[in-house]
Amino acid sequence: MIHNHGVLKAITLLYLVVGIIAPFPKDFIWGAATAAFQIEGAWLQDGKSPSVWDNLAHLPGFTSDGKAPEVGPDSYNLYQQDIDLMKKNGIKHYRFSVSWPRIVPKGRLNSTVNDKAVARYRDILKALKAAGITPYVTLYHWDLPAVLAIQGYGLTDKYFVQDFAYFAEVCFKNFGEYVDNWFTFNEVWCVALLNEFKQRDKGTKPYLIAHTLLLAHAEVVKIFREKYNPKKTGKIGIVLNSSMMYPKDPKSEKDKEAARRGLVYSLSWIADPVFKGDYPEEMKKRAGKRLPTFTEEEKKKLKGSCDFFAINHYFSELCEDGNGETPWDYWSDRNVKTSYDPQWKLTDSGWPIVPEGLHDLLYVIHTNWAQSAKVPIWITENGCAVSEPTLTESQHDTCLLYTSDAADDTPCVDLGGRRIINKQ
């Protein structure tokens, strides 16, 4: 869901009240989104090399049914059917990712470009254009070429920035005539933290991964703006993710502070560098030397490196002050204990359904970054996971998110004692 205005007032959500659907602004944009590893299949077709996810999915016991997505939905081959289906259902905007190990199989700077893969993606983009569907392309949705990880050129390697920039430039050169909207990385928070780290690395490696990705983002944005966006019609940015965080006890100053701190460590960690040029001061003070620093030149490249604020949001959390352990890693630095309200209904993935959380998170984004930077807010992912094995069940969805007044740009009111929002 993407809107062309930066003010929160212009962002309206679907809500259901006695069967009436609220009107959307005429220029509100609905879309669908996928990722290459999720839908492409064709895992070694046309010269593609394995990604880290291919390798993981082939490990015994890693997937629920023991199968790796070697074929999956097979969208790499059946893309025309997918596009026809999107057109039939009125989808006019489509976000998807391209596969780094498919386009540059060896992953490295100046290594061979896979012409077959480039040709296929161009065919997909041509088909989208013919169907009247606007593409939004993610360059990195977690499928690092496995060869880089195996050879030691992973997400913390000093060569990662130049390797990723080379891959990105291949994409700009070959797909730029069809693509105006680009995302460098999807969910840096997840990439940095959802890994199995050795104990000795837990205090530093998440921060180093995020730092490397931010530097790569800034370099790619610079290349795009200077060489591949001469008419200034294209847009580029990074995709953040966050839950909305509320104080568990709205009367507790410690819980209020924990909720605020939780948002700093999920949102400000990445948003501050790309909109303000540096990490939040409290993160720098708490992590000390474990948090890398930017040079003055890097700060200048980072500040203003997003043409929009892209956010993925799925659920909310209740926060209370942590156990106060001596800071030594991200989680002890954050020092926040989270839980769910037992009254919140859960999706089949175990995440709570909290419609007002999206409204409140948008308000936080608007007041802390989007408004001052004069950029629009793009909701790039949102929704819920439900099991609907039959057509009847899918037509009578019990997990529709319903909320009203999401277009309100006033400070959040106190609903149930918890919606207390302060600027970061």
General description of the model:
- There is one protein chain.
- Helix content is 38%, strand content 13%.
- A hairpin with a 2-residue loop joins strand 1 (16-17) and strand 2.
- The strands form 3 sheets. Strands 3-4-5-6-7-9-12 form a 7-stranded parallel sheet. A 3-stranded mixed sheet has the order 8-10-11. It has a two-stranded antiparallel sheet with strand order 1-2.
- By secondary structure, it is α/β, with parallel strands linked by helices.
- Helix 3 runs parallel beside helix 5 and helix 7 packs parallel to helix 9 (205-227).
- It has 15 helices and 12 strands.
Give a short overview.
The protein is α/β, with parallel strands linked by helices and 424 residues long. It is built from 15 helices and twelve strands. The two termini are 25 Å apart.
Which structural traits does this protein have?
globular, three-stranded mixed β-sheet, alpha/beta, disordered N terminus, seven-stranded parallel β-sheet, 424 residues, disordered C terminus
Oligomerization category of the chains in this entry: single chain
Shape: globular
Query: How would you spell out the order of helices and strands?
Result: EEEHHHEHHEHHEHHEEHHHEEHEHEH
Largest sheet: 7 strands, parallel
Mean pLDDT: 89
Strand order of the largest sheet: 3-4-5-6-7-9-12
* Distance, first to last CA: 25 Å
Number of discrete helical segments: 15
Detail the poorly predicted runs.
1-21, 401-417, 419-424
Secondary structure tally: strands: 12
Give the % helix.
Answer: 25-40%
Strand percent estimate: 5-15%
Please compute the radius of gyration using only Cα atoms: 21 Å
Helix/strand-derived class?
alpha/beta
